Amino acid sequence: MTQEINQGRRTALKTGGATAIFGLFVAAGLVRPNTALAQAAGWNQGAFAAKGVDGTVKALGGATPAQTKDVNWGSTPEIAENGAVVPVSITSSIPKTESISILVEKNPNTLSAVFTIPPGTDPSISTRVKMGESSAVYALIKADGKYYVAQRDIKVTLGGCGG
Amino acid sequence: MKYATHLRNALLAAAAAALLVSGCASTPRVSAEQAHDVLKTSFTERGQAKLDRLEQDDVQKTCSYGPGTAPSKEVLDALEKAQLAAIKFPADGKLLGDWRAGERIAQTGTGKQYSDNAAVPSGANCYACHQITPQEISYGTIGPSLLGYGKVRGNSEAILRYTYGKIYNSNAYTACSNMPRFGHQNILTEQQLKDVTALLLDPSSPVNK
Amino acid sequence: MADPMRIRAKMEGDKTVVRVLMSHEMETGQRKDSAGKTIPAMFIQEVTATCNGKTVLSAQWGTSISKNPYLQFAFSGAKAGDKVVVSWVDSKGDKRTDEAAIAA
Amino acid sequence: MMQWRGGALMLGAALVAVSVGAQAQSGGDTIKKIEEYRQALADGNPADLWEARGEDLWKQKRGPKNVSLERCDLGKGPGVVKGAYAELPRYFADADRVMDLESRLLHCMTTQQGMTRAEALKVPFGDGEKRSDMEALSAYVAGESRGVKMNVSQAHAKERQAYALGQKLFYYRGGPHDFACATCHGEANKRIRLQDLPNLTETKDAQKAYTTWPAYRVSQGELRTMQWRLNDCFRQQRFPFLEFGSDTSVALLTFLARNANGAEFNAPAIKR
To answer: Is D72 tagged catalytic?
Structure first.
């Protein structure tokens, strides 16, 4: 119903693409350990405090990741009606996938989550992340000891009548 | 004449109500006074929103109608005339402000809610209802698209005054418009009204690119 | 004490699909309360899922996982009636463990 | 903040090509993509957490009289929850008043469990750690009407009176913005920003809207009920604060629920 009315309204979509690319090369060294936080034993404090994709990968113990097309984003939307809940679904078809991480370029801390995939578990996870603004989102895959990255731009829209 | 219109409107109202509540023998009638009295017992003041907000002015009284009960053309014409006469144009004669400030006002949805800080200037929330600049894809459709507003209409004194006046008091041109009377009701300041006018009419505004 | 998780585990073919909802604020540490004071960060940091004593998924989370987190994954090697056990630990050291039997 | 490193330039060029492709998308797709977003959310609705807590609260002995709500009559007999929400609001002889679910729960909490109104409404709308029992109970009761057809009665004179009053109030303009409910919800096929606005005077839209509340609002991370929905509409209408279970609440809810008659109830839902 709504689709019909709005089909005529064709507007260029602004994406956060260009900025996101620069972000890939933001130098490491921004790791700011947050000592005030208690933490679970195996929690990688450095990686979660890192800013930028490169810095995050480094903090996770990897080198510059290779770009990959072997990632399926499943039901991950291109436009999120609300940044507080953005569904992210990532399936890796890279053999020997060991972990899947979600990185949001423009969030205050880039790394959202690291999922470790043991043998017997599908290299596929769905969860929901917060996004402060439109941004590139990265799937960072560790497979057979190497890192791979795939990008998805997600636009976060404004809503509501009371601001 | 007037009586006949009223009678027709009343019949239409009854028919509309019957459509919604089919199978119901009698739909009780509720007067504006009854509605007002119920509201008075149902709300409490909070923040800047006091109970006087439940009191209607002439425009609100005239415009609180449902389907099939619209006031006569004479009533609506008189309403427009009275509202037009109440518009205060800027004393300095300048109607165009800063379109960039206007864009911020158009994007801002806060102001006058009980949850808002009364000391912070209100926004106009234009994007809630109108498409304005091509860059903003999150816009509403309650009002018409204003894309290319100034490019289409030009920048004549008449257009300037109409645009400023429409933002100041929408009811001066369209009785019972859905659009707030931003100047008349002191939602926006004179400078803010000029800024929003500039967003629509300044040739360098993205609206007109 | 946090509310129980809602865990749904179901056989789809020879795989077990697990859906988990957790009741948690996932406070970022960047929001301010009405008095302007920063609300301290408080979020789930580690999640572990096991089945028949074997870890089927483990995760580390930061502050940007959404409030009341949702998680879906799938694994092989279990059958209907087996139990999936999910645990989380948050940044304050609060813990929660719940389980669900795998539905056919 | 940006610092280039020579070795990575080639990769950068490859990604630029990808992003130009993304920029060619047009706004006509926006609504389709928002729909995809909503569908992606539907698979795990945190409202489940509220329904579970609400069921516990319903069965727990609470209040000064230390009784559960299992003797509370929601209109289909004491303790009957199944299908009750689909027939509310309705006239209750014991209170001689039309009541929606939340005013009825309040009635049972005060008369049966012995709580004061203030106690029962300590947290009418939840906010993080301050959780609302009323929202959890409403989620549970509403969930027990999933799949049931809306069937709100107009048999009693007070039910007809509430409907007529609700209709009148729907068009009542006031406040600095001249807004009525009808300003946003009186016309078909409109939206505010990107949100579709149901025309609540028209059967199909009214049905779709009413049968998807209560709902988990992702923007707030909370489950919200119809009482909250009305409160927040009035806040944005720039009206004063709508009192819980007031005559205005009950009348508007009667108008809205009755207009949704015949549709299958399907909530708690998940919404922006």
So the answer is: no
